[in-house]
Amino acid sequence: MILIVGGAFQGKRAYANNYLKKEIHWIDGKECEYDDIFSSEGIFNFHLFVKRILRTGEPDQFPEQLMRENPDIVIVTDELGYGVVPVEASDRAWREKTGRICTELAEQADEVHRVVCGVGMVIKNA
């Protein structure tokens, strides 16, 4: 698993394609089916995927299931923990849960990259 994080509009997906030296088949976390993540090469807008699964009931075992069923996935997600704290409690819960899931995935990932202004930095390479 490769986890790529960074702020919004920082070129994370382009960085991933360049780093991997190929165009992979991406699914969009904003609109993909839940089960699609377990067989796709990569997902972008992962933070929006988490938001959607929180609305339908939080699957407690999601990170473990993803690591077990699709260990080679490339995950691209926005960092949500910086900036203004959301007013809405549901948005704060989403932000916290996304951070916790990403932390759990990063622990198990082979690689973790942080992208700023299109420039990536490897912060973990197992």
Automatic annotation (TrEMBL):
<keyword id="KW-0808">Transferase</keyword>
<comment type="similarity">
    <text>Belongs to the CobU/CobP family.</text>
</comment>
<keyword id="KW-0342">GTP-binding</keyword>
<comment type="pathway">
    <text>Cofactor biosynthesis; adenosylcobalamin biosynthesis; adenosylcobalamin from cob(II)yrinate a,c-diamide: step 6/7.</text>
</comment>
<dbReference type="GO" id="GO:0008820">
    <property type="term" value="F:cobinamide phosphate guanylyltransferase activity"/>
</dbReference>
<dbReference type="Pfam" id="PF02283">
    <property type="entry name" value="CobU"/>
</dbReference>
<dbReference type="GO" id="GO:0005524">
    <property type="term" value="F:ATP binding"/>
</dbReference>
<comment type="pathway">
    <text>Cofactor biosynthesis; adenosylcobalamin biosynthesis; adenosylcobalamin from cob(II)yrinate a,c-diamide: step 5/7.</text>
</comment>
<dbReference type="GO" id="GO:0005525">
    <property type="term" value="F:GTP binding"/>
</dbReference>
<keyword id="KW-0418">Kinase</keyword>
<dbReference type="GO" id="GO:0009236">
    <property type="term" value="P:cobalamin biosynthetic process"/>
</dbReference>
<keyword id="KW-0547">Nucleotide-binding</keyword>
<keyword id="KW-0067">ATP-binding</keyword>
<protein>
    <recommendedName>
        <fullName>Adenosylcobinamide kinase</fullName>
        <ecNumber>2.7.1.156</ecNumber>
        <ecNumber>2.7.7.62</ecNumber>
    </recommendedName>
</protein>
<dbReference type="InterPro" id="IPR027417">
    <property type="entry name" value="P-loop_NTPase"/>
</dbReference>
<comment type="function">
    <text>Catalyzes ATP-dependent phosphorylation of adenosylcobinamide and addition of GMP to adenosylcobinamide phosphate.</text>
</comment>
<dbReference type="InterPro" id="IPR003203">
    <property type="entry name" value="CobU/CobP"/>
</dbReference>
<keyword id="KW-0548">Nucleotidyltransferase</keyword>
<keyword id="KW-0169">Cobalamin biosynthesis</keyword>
<dbReference type="GO" id="GO:0043752">
    <property type="term" value="F:adenosylcobinamide kinase activity"/>
</dbReference>
